[in-house]
């Protein structure tokens, strides 16, 4: 019996050692490598449980993703609705402001139109009043304010104030300030005679004590101009003279023009001077083919009461392309020009012994102290053709 047990133990030991690889050639560590228990992977219940778990997790993840997406869509929709509402409010506010601005602009324009209409009516009423006064004076009988139907600028209706009392600005004041009163009347008469072609290019206005030149419309651009207001010794406006260089854009393209300007109050004709007179002034002129070249000559003139003779010399502009350093002298066919009883002066302009132009003018003012007129070359079709205006003021001399 003992032999059987011993054999069985020996056999079991051999089998265990053999299974563990215990042999003389195996490394020592091999005896300690105990194999892991085998898992049965073919368990249907475990597989089902695993699949169910994975399906549950996938479903939860899907629902979470859908919930997140729904939340994002909700927020986007809310933000869009909010933006649309704000845009709508902004648009309504802008429309409201635009409507208010439109109404305000309409109200402003209506107010301006009302004021303009009132100003127009007031101006028309004032002009009608002035026209009535002028008409009454022109059509009246000769008296201290009316020289035989010709209105004199020196004695307009003045409610008892004489011109000598009110000859300076502010002496009488208000409606009795005859200095301003006379200016308005004189300028009105000057406007009435300003009907030549120049009136379509430039306009004149009375601003303060001066007559001012401006373009007639936006198509006229003044490049250079000069306008002198001439007054009698006691302050009345007698007339004006000057020139304007301009660019005329009223037609296709742009045209350079030069125009001379001169006018006198027809009521200021006074005839020949009673004394010897010395005059000085200017002649503004330009050559017809050089409208951009404005020239200025210096005028010197004398009147002798003893023989009623008038002499005048005009020194050409130093930049004159043809007559620089030359002098035009006013003559008939002899040395002096006779002035008629109305103060009219007509004569030829000589350079030495050659006739180079002509002058037509007149003396104005109560003391014949203002000279105004026009001048031009005899030939108006040549390269040397020119036109000018003359203005001068004089003083009595011994």
From TrEMBL:
<feature type="compositionally biased region" description="Basic and acidic residues">
    <location>
        <begin position="47"/>
        <end position="132"/>
    </location>
</feature>
<keyword id="KW-0732">Signal</keyword>
<feature type="signal peptide">
    <location>
        <begin position="1"/>
        <end position="19"/>
    </location>
</feature>
<protein>
    <recommendedName>
        <fullName>Transferrin binding protein</fullName>
    </recommendedName>
</protein>
<feature type="region of interest" description="Disordered">
    <location>
        <begin position="20"/>
        <end position="156"/>
    </location>
</feature>
<feature type="compositionally biased region" description="Polar residues">
    <location>
        <begin position="134"/>
        <end position="146"/>
    </location>
</feature>
<feature type="compositionally biased region" description="Low complexity">
    <location>
        <begin position="28"/>
        <end position="42"/>
    </location>
</feature>
């Amino acid at each position: 019996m003992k032999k059987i047990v011993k054999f069985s133990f020996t056999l079991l030991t051999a089998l265990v050692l053999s299974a563990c690889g215990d042999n003389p050639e195996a490394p020592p560590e091999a005896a300690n490598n105990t194999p892991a228990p085998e898992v049965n992977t073919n368990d249907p219940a475990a597989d089902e449980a695993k699949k169910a778990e994975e399906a549950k997790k996938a479903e939860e993840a899907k629902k979470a993703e859908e919930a997140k997406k729904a939340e994002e869509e909700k927020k986007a929709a809310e933000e869009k609705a909010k933006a649309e509402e704000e845009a709508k409010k902004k648009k309504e506010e802008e429309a409201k402001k635009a409507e208010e601005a439109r109404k305000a602009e309409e109200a402003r324009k209506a107010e301006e139109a009302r004021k303009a209409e009132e100003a127009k009516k007031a101006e028309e009423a004032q002009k009608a009043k002035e026209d009535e006064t002028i008409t009454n004076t022109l059509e009246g009988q000769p008296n201290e304010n009316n020289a035989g139907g010709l209105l004199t600028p020196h004695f307009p209706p003045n409610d008892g104030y004489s011109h000598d009392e009110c000859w300076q600005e502010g002496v009488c004041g208000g409606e009795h300030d005859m200095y301003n009163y006379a200016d308005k009347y004189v300028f009105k008469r000057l406007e009435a005679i300003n009907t030549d072609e120049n009136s379509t290019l430039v306009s004149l206005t009375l601003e303060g004590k001066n007559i001012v030149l401006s373009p007639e419309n936006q198509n006229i651009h003044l490049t250079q101009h000069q306008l002198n207001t001439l007054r009698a010794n006691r302050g009345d406006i007698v007339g004006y003279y000057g020139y304007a260089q301009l660019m005329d854009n009223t037609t296709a393209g742009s045209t350079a023009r030069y125009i001379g300007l001169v006018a006198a109050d027809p009521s200021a004709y006074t005839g020949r001077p009673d004394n010897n007179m010395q005059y000085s002034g200017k002649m503004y002129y330009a050559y017809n083919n050089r409208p951009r070249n404005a020239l200025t000559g210096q005028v010197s003139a004398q009147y002798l009461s003893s023989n009623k003779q008038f002499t005048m010399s005009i020194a050409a502009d130093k930049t004159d392309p043809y007559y620089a350093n030359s002098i035009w002298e006013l003559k008939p066919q002899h040395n002096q020009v006779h002035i008629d009883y109305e103060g009219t002066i007509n004569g030829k302009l000589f350079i030495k012994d050659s006739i180079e132009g002509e002058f037509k003018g007149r003396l104005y003012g109560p003391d014949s102290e203002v000279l105004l007129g026009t001048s031009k070359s005899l030939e108006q079709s040549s390269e040397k053709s020119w036109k000018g205006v003359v203005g001068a003021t004089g003083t009595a001399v011994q």
